[in-house]
C-alpha cells in the first residue's frame, strides 16, 4: 500500500521531458514571449494575463501546433509505467498543468497512456485561452495547483520541476522536486525529495520514509487578489 491516496504531476518538463509551450512559442510565437514569463516570476503580472498575451502570438491552426508537438516533444518513458503501477494499487494520477493545454491529450494518446485525469487551461483555436481551473479570488495562476492538491483525496504526492509548481508543492504531503522547483522548495521550507525519473518516484513511494506533511500556509504566498470589478 502506498503512503498516499493521490498523485499529482506537472506536465511540461515533468511528465513530458520537454516544455511544450516553450517549444511552440519558439517555433510560432514572438521572441517577446519570454518577457511575460519573467514578469510573472517577478510578480508583476498574473499567469492568465501572460498566457493570454502569449496565446495571441500563436496564430497557427491547432492541428499544426499539435503535429509539431508530436514531432518534437516526447513523454518521459518512465511516466506510462508509473501510471500503470499506480492504477494497479488504485492510486489515481492527475496531470496538473498551467500551460496551453492543447497538446496534453494528443501526447498521452500517442504514448498509449490511459486513465489519467487532466487539469489544465483550455485552448481556443485562433490564439485564445480560458482558465476554468483558476482560483476564484486570485489571478496569479491560470490553473491553481494549490486547489488541485486540496481537491483530491489526501495524502497527496506532488511531482514537479518548475516555478508554476511551487504553490502546489506547499500543500502536498510529499513533494518530488528537480530543477527550478528545488530552489523554491528550499526557499519555502518544503521538505522535498529529489528525483530524476518516475522510477525514482515509485521507488521512494514504495520504499521511502513516511510523507513529511505539507507546509500548508493559511494563505498561499502567491496570492494576487482579483480587483473588485473582475
What does this structure look like?
The protein is α/β, with parallel strands linked by helices and 230 residues long. It has a single domain, classed as HAD superfamily/HAD-like (Rossmann fold, 3-Layer(aba) Sandwich). Helix content is 38%, strand content 13%. It has helices spanning 20-28, 33-41, 47-57, 62-72, 79-88, 104-111, 145-150, 166-169, 180-188, 198-207, and strands at 6-9, 93-96, 117-119, 122-124, 128-130, 156-160, 174-177, 192-194. The strands form two sheets. It has a six-stranded parallel beta sheet with strand order 3-2-1-6-7-8. Strands 4-5 form a two-stranded antiparallel sheet. Strand 2 (93-96), helix 6 (104-111) and strand 3 form a beta-alpha-beta unit. Helix 1 crosses helix 4 (62-72), helix 2 packs antiparallel against helix 3 (47-57) and helix 5 (79-88) packs parallel to helix 10 (198-207). The N and C termini lie far apart (45 Å). The model has no long low-confidence stretch (mean pLDDT 96).
Descriptive keywords:
alpha/beta; Rossmann fold; six-stranded parallel β-sheet; two-stranded antiparallel sheet; 8 strands
Q: Biggest sheet: strands side by side, in what order?
A: 3-2-1-6-7-8
CATH fold label: Rossmann fold
Q: Uncertain segments of ≥5 residues (pLDDT<50)?
A: none
Order of helices and strands: EHHHHHEHEEEHEHEHEH
CATH homologous superfamily grouping: HAD superfamily/HAD-like
CATH class: Alpha Beta
Share of residues in helices? 25-40%
Which structural class fits the helix and strand makeup? alpha/beta
Shape: globular
Over all CA atoms, what is the radius of gyration?
A: 17 Å
Q: Tell me the number of helical segments per DSSP (H or I, 4 or more residues long).
A: 10
Amino- and carboxy-terminal Cα gap: 45 Å
The main pleated sheet reads as: 6 strands, parallel
Amino acid at each position: 500500500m502506498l503512503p498516499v491516496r493521490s498523485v499529482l504531476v506537472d506536465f511540461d518538463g515533468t511528465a513530458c521531458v520537454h516544455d511544450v509551450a516553450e517549444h511552440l512559442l519558439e517555433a510560432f510565437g514572438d521572441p517577446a514571449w519570454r518577457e511575460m514569463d519573467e514578469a510573472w516570476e517577478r510578480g508583476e503580472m498574473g499567469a492568465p494575463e501572460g498566457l493570454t498575451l502569449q496565446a495571441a502570438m500563436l496564430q497557427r491552426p491547432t492541428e499544426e501546433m499539435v503535429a509539431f508537438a508530436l514531432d518534437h516533444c516526447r513523454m518521459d518513458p518512465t511516466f506510462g509505467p508509473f501510471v500503470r503501477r499506480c492504477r494497479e494499487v488504485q492510486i489515481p494520477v492527475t496531470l496538473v498543468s498551467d500551460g496551453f493545454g492543447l497538446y496534453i491529450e494528443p501526447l498521452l494518446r500517442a504514448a498509449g497512456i490511459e486513465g489519467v485525469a487532466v487539469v489544465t487551461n483550455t485552448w481556443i483555436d485562433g490564439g485564445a485561452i480560458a482558465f476554468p481551473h483558476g482560483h476564484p479570488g486570485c489571478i496569479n495562476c491560470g490553473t491553481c495547483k494549490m486547489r488541485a492538491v486540496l481537491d483530491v483525496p489526501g495524502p497527496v504526492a506532488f511531482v514537479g520541476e518548475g516555478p508554476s509548481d511551487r504553490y502546489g508543492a506547499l500543500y502536498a504531503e510529499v513533494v518530488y522536486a528537480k530543477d527550478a522547483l528545488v530552489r523554491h522548495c528550499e526557499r519555502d521550507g518544503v521538505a522535498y525529495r529529489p528525483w530524476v525519473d518516475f522510477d525514482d518516484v515509485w521507488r521512494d513511494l514504495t520504499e521511502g520514509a513516511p510523507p513529511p506533511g505539507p507546509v500548508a500556509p493559511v494563505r498561499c504566498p502567491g496570492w494576487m487578489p482579483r480587483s473588485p470589478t473582475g
